[in-house]
Specification:
about 325 residues; six-stranded antiparallel β-sheet; 11 strands; alpha+beta; Arc Repressor Mutant, subunit A; 11 helices; three-stranded antiparallel β-sheet
């Protein structure tokens, strides 16, 4: 493996990299990142605007004779860098993919050399040639599902679930740009995160089963609507569909199913839609509660799908939260 260079520091955007200490910081706050993705980031920062081939990356990260899945390993390292920087393959601000060629760092980089008590700084920007070339080319995305984790020793270890950076990759861009990223979320004990997520699933299962068990009462309540039959049909159909969906998510999280986080993120836009619809469910209890309480419960339920997404990014379904945090 390549060694990071002592006394070498880099700045780009709001980030700073210290190659000697192995630290990545954003506005002074440390961002966790594993050893090999950090080494690759240093390689890219050392040669900004230059294309670094996948073969060169493989030789640098793994000693000769190491038996690993290089294809998945490189993809994993690049995606971990992007996740740490809040970058995307489809609209790169930092790491750009050049299809079948390799990767390059496209943002301006400031190199800070430590020489005794004095520092000399040299700023390197993208030149017009590199920028023009980037605009002419159409870089592809990695797009390779990764179920392997690069360990600090340089080998690939099997993971019980896909990492959240790949979970975020399957979200529509409109969601991933406006919603919380993993680094925006607080740290919490794994047991607490897991328990809260499971309670959310049990809550919805209770809603669906309770509604189907009280159809005559609900039908009477809906009779005052303009189209009561349609409203009742929507309730029955969505409840019947969502019971197995929630049971699947519940079991997958309980047993740490592989790729559950990726699968949940694929399901999330659909769950967002139906969860917002089912946020109206407190009004089905108007025979037992008043309108004000139903409205308050509805407001809390509107937040529920966003809370579930955050819990998944915090590690719900994984054996350890560390499997979803950098470093």
């Amino acid at each position: 493996m390549t060694d990071t260079q002592p006394g070498r520091r880099y700045r780009f955007g709001t980030f700073e990299v210290d190659a000697a200490s192995g630290e990545l910081r954003r506005q002074g706050i440390r961002v966790r990142i594993n050893a090999q993705p950090f080494q690759l980031l240093v390689m890219l920062l050392e040669r900004p605007c230059e294309v670094i081939s996948r073969e060169e990356i493989e030789r640098a990260l793994w000693p000769e004779g190491t038996f690993v899945d290089y294809e998945h390993g490189v993809n994993s390292a690049v995606n971990r860098i992007r996740e740490a920087l809040g970058d995307t393959a489809s609209n790169p601000r930092f790491v750009e993919t050049l299809a079948r060629r390799g990767y390059r760092f496209v943002a301006p980089v400031e190199k800070i050399r430590e020489q005794g008590n004095e520092r000399t700084r040299e700023r390197e920007h993208r030149d017009t040639g590199a920028e023009g070339q980037r605009e002419r080319e159409h870089p592809g995305s990695d797009g390779v599902p990764v179920d392997m984790q690069i360990s600090a020793s340089g080998s690939l270890a099997s993971r019980p679930a896909a990492t959240f950076e790949f979970a975020l990759d399957v979200e529509p861009q409109a969601f991933s740009r406006i919603l919380a990223a993993p680094e925006d979320l607080p740290k919490a004990p794994q047991v607490l995160v897991q328990t809260l997520f499971i309670l959310f699933q049990l809550m919805y299962l209770t809603f669906y089963i309770g509604a189907l068990a009280n159809l005559p009462e609900i039908e009477e309540l809906l009779s005052s609507l303009a189209r009561p039959v349609l409203a009742l049909d929507i309730l029955i159909v969505t409840a019947a569909i969502l019971i197995p969906v929630r049971a699947f998510v519940l079991c997958a999280v309980l047993f740490h199913a592989p790729r559950i986080h990726r699968q949940f993120m694929r399901l999330w836009p659909f769950l967002l839609l139906v969860d917002v619809l089912w946020a109206l469910s407190p009004f089905l209890l108007l025979h037992h509660i008043n309108v004000g309480l139903a409205l308050a419960c509805m407001a809390l339920l509107v937040y529920s799908p966003f809370a579930q997404r955050s819990l998944v990014l915090m590690g719900a379904g994984s054996g350890s939260r560390n499997a979803f945090l950098r470093g």
